[in-house]
Every structure is written in C-alpha cells, then in structure tokens.
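Ticket #4471: structure export looks truncated?
Reporter: QA, pipeline team
Priority: medium

Steps to reproduce: submit the single chain below to the structure queue and open the exported record.
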Amino acid sequence: MEEMGMTLASNLKRILKYFLVRIIIMAITLLIGVYVVILVANMGGAVDEIRKSEIREAVGRRLLGDENYRIMSSEERQKYAKMLEEIEFKRFGLDQPFLIRSFLYLKQALTLDLGNAERLTSDTGSRKVKLIILERLVPTLVLMMTSFLILFFSALTFALFLSRRYGSFFDKMIIALAPLSAAPAWFYGIFLILIFAAILKILPFGGMVRVPPPDNAFEYFLSLLRHLVLPVFSVLLSSIFISTYNWRTYFLIYSNEDYVEMAKAKGLSSAMIERRYILRPTMPAIVTSFALSLITQWMGSITLETVFNWPGLGRRIYEAISNFDSPVIVGANVIYAYLLATTVLVLDVIYAILDPRVRVEATGGVEQ
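Actual output as written to the record:
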C-alpha cells in the first residue's frame, strides 16, 4: 500500500510538472505573439505618426474659433499651437519613443487594460476596449463552438461509416469531394446567402437574431437557430469532406493492425473491436487534426462573420482594421491568442487521456 501511494504521488508530481512546463512555454509564446501583434498593429510606430497628424489637425481646427489666437503674432501662434499639441501628445503617451511604449502596450494588452478605443464604441456607447471586445466574444463562441461540435461528430460518424465500406460508392464520392475543402467557409457562405436568402428567401441574409429581437426567450432561441443555419453550414462545407477523408484513412490504417486481427480471432463483436481497438487508438490523431482545423477556423472567423454580418469578435476586428483602431485590434488579437493557447493546452490533456500509450514526462514532453 505504501509503495502504491508513493507511485501515485510520483505520477501526480510528474503530471503537475509537465503541465507547469507546458503553461510556461505557452506563456512565452503568447508573450512573443502579442508583442508582434502590437508592432504590426502600430506599423512599427507609423500609426502613432498618423495620430500626431490628427491631433495637429484637431488643434488647428480648435484654434480657428479662438478669438485670442487671432490677435496673436505669428510667432506666438506657433508657440501656442505647439504647446497644445505637446499637451495632447503627453495625454496619449505619444511624447515617449515607440520602443518604450510598445512594452507598456504589451503589459496593457496581456491584462486587456487597453484604455479607450480611438474610434469604435460598444453597443452601450462605452469606449472601453475591454467592453468593446468582451461583448462580442459570446456571439463568436456560440457560432464557432456550434460549428465545431457539429463538424466533429458528423465527420467522425461518416468516417466510421466509410471505413466499414472501403471502396464503396460513398467512399469514392468523399474522396472526389475532398478538394472542395480548399475553399474557406466564407466562400461557401456567399453562395448559400445567394441561394437560400436572395433566391429562395427561406433563411435570413445575416445577423444573429431578427430585428427587433424577440422579447420571449424561446422565440429568441428559435431566431438564433434560424440565423445559425447558413454560417454553420458554410463551416461544414469547408471542412467536413477533408476531415471525413482523413479520419476514414486513420480508421483503415488501424483496422489492419495485428491486435485487431487477434481480437477478431477471439470472436469479439464488431462494435467492441471498433470501439476498443480502432476508435480509441485513433482518437489522439483525430483530435490533433481537429484542433489544428479549429485554430484555422478561429482566425478565419473575421471574414466569415463579416459576410454574415454576425456581431462577433471577428467582425469587430474587421471594423477596427478599417478604422485604424489599434487598441481594439491588439485587444481582439490577444483574446484570440488566449483562445488558441487554451486550445493547445486542452489538446495536450485530451491527448494524454485518450492514448494509453502516452506517459507524461516532467520535462514537458511525452514518452510512448
């Protein structure tokens, strides 16, 4: 008993060390990624020069209506205007070199303490970047998680079905349709809107719920489901054929292993063989493949939400880019970075749980 307790404590310690190392690695990656976003969003400081020009124009317009300014001499006007500009520069932190401010931006970005947006506002009229971003996070999670769950279970079911019917008509059809996944979800979204909204008029063009929103909770839910149909179907069309083809291939490979033949010789049922000896060892590879596609879809949501006028985080990023609103761009990308890091960490946990051959090492790796 004492030896078993020591083994359990040792395994627990090793697992904790493993996840601690993984969290530290992801934190460093997140740090570097966010800093790069800050540099890109500010175009290496060029955006700050644009801000300074806008401040100078604003100060100039304000001075045109100042009676005292008009009676000043030319030299006094220049000094007064420059003083007002310097005050505004200091208020926005533009009096410091960009390199110094970039690290300040990094600290603020990681804590989502980005102050006020330059042009955008939240649905409630607030200019707080945190509110502008977080109010749009829930619609994005609703759209993407609904799409991912339907995609995962649909592709998994079809892949198992095809693995039992290798070489059949349906198997050949999926192989033929796999190249269709080269097109992104928003591409299919345009055609779906044209067919089902513009021509057939049976589904809405876009949005999250009808306008004005229903007061009744059940009607609101039904309206939400109706508006989810086209964007979710777009994600399915862009991913389900290639996912089914890939996962069906995994099942075929594992179904020819020696231990599967031995299980068949023992007289085990097809369902048990499929569940224990084919599905479980295949799941780590499937989960990895799905997680990579999930990350791709996260970043592709910007265009998808814009096409469907979905009030999510992706559309907010598009609006921020169009308006050169750097604080919102940085804040939204930080949220995406957190989501992607969480996805990878969860993948590590699932991978270790699903594959019994994997042994977690304290150095942050796995041993098979």
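Status: closed, not a bug. The export was complete when the record was re-opened. Leaving a note from the reviewer for reference: Residues 129-367 form a domain with the MetI-like fold fold (CATH 1.10.3720.10).
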